[in-house]
């Protein structure tokens, strides 16, 4: 059964299609989009080994001329140097304005392929085919693309909406357990910022830390409600003028933790989990949130097998300094997303450094 979620935007609306087996039907999923003949599939070696041939076979059977390129896996390769390699392949294979890049992989591949597509010939088509839970529910949707600068995450990028997002839940079966948990951090985020019903359903689920213990109907709820939440927010605020900033819940401190640990010690989802715990504690300290709610949030984070404490030996002053380099800083003030109840958050830049410091010292 296919679930279709629409992302309604003034200039380019598109569909998120969630359907088991859709990887085999990639060409059918892409027909009707008026795409050119040439397709560049960008992936990483691990994902490509599992799914590359199937994706390419589907596309070539429909008459697409397909080339592929694999970038190394990992956040530390999310650089302009990797983008240059995609450009080289695009040039070599004469990709045109009507051509399409297909991102087959997790968030790193999706972000880089999207950015390459946004900037090649001033913008060509991109289709997102996310293969991790985190990419399915978050990074593949909404058109945020980019790469990291040595001093900060995603500082270089562009908004470039995909023509379609194609999600095959079957591919989660080959996802490492740690990566599944990382995706659950973003799912929990949606429960806190937007969807109290999703939060309640996650609380009711016995186990959230391994795919094999999560019932298929719960996976269906996780994917459809998370994608719907992201689509709702992006449709209301495409380029982060206001509301869309709530999607950064847990990311402010999370990005600083990732950056300070060189993108090697904690993955994105783990960093977001730590950031959500910190944001919850800040909200309680400022009298915005009930202690009981922060306990519920943290219990859910633990149920998903995610960390609730800072990595051993991390420099707290380093985190506070790194916050100033965050993209969300405005007039020198760090913008935080803080919960006021389950399903509702507020955006504020009125968080004293001393409060941040005290919360981090307690973690």
TrEMBL record:
All residue ranges annotated as the 3-dehydroquinate synthase C-terminal domain in the record: 183-329
GO biological process, one term: chorismate biosynthetic process
Details of cofactor binding: Binds 1 divalent metal cation per subunit. Can use either Co(2+) or Zn(2+).
Compartments where found: Cytoplasm
Known EC number: 4.2.3.4
SUPFAM superfamilies, per database record: Dehydroquinate synthase-like (SSF56796)
GO terms under cellular component: cytoplasm
GO MF term set: 3-dehydroquinate synthase activity; metal ion binding; nucleotide binding
Name this protein carries in UniProt: 3-dehydroquinate synthase
């Amino acid at each position: 059964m296919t679930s279709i979620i629409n992302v309604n935007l003034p200039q380019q609306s598109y569909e998120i299609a969630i359907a088991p087996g859709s990887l085999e039907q990639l060409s059918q999923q892409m027909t009707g989009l008026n795409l050119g003949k040439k397709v560049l599939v960008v992936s990483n070696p691990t994902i490509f080994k599992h799914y590359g041939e199937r994706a390419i076979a589907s596309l070539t059977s429909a008459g697409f001329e397909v080339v592929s390129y694999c970038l190394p896996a990992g956040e530390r390769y999310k650089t302009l140097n990797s983008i240059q390699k995609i450009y080289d392949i695009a040039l070599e294979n004469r990709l045109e304005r009507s051509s399409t890049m297909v991102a087959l992989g997790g968030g790193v591949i999706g972000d880089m392929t999207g950015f390459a597509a946004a900037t090649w010939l001033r913008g060509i088509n991109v289709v997102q085919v996310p293969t991790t839970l985190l990419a399915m529910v978050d990074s593949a949707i909404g058109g945020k693309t980019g790469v990291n600068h040595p001093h900060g995450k995603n500082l270089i990028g562009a908004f470039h909406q995909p023509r379609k997002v194609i999600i095959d839940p079957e591919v989660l079966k080959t996802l490492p357990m740690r990566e599944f948990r990382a995706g659950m951090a973003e799912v929990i985020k949606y429960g806190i910022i937007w969807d109290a019903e999703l939060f309640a359903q996650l609380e009711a689920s016995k186990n959230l830390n391994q795919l094999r213990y999560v019932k298929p109907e719960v996976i269906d709820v996780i994917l459809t409600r998370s994608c719907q939440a992201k689509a709702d927010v992006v449709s209301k605020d495409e380029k982060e003028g206001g509301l869309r900033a709530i999607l950064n819940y847990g990311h402010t401190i999370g990005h600083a933790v990732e950056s300070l640990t060189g993108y090697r010690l904690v993955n994105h989802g783990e960093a977001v989990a730590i950031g959500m715990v910190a944001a919850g504690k800040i909200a309680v300290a400022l009298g915005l949130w009930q202690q009981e709610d922060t306990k519920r949030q943290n219990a859910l984070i633990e149920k998903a097998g995610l960390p609730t404490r800072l990595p051993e030996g991390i420099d707290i002053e380093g985190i506070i300094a790194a916050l100033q380099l965050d993209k969300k800083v405005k007039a020198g003030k760090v913008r935080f997303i803080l919960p006021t109840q389950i399903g509702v958050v507020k955006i504020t830049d009125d968080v004293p450094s001393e409060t941040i410091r005290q919360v981090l010292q307690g973690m």
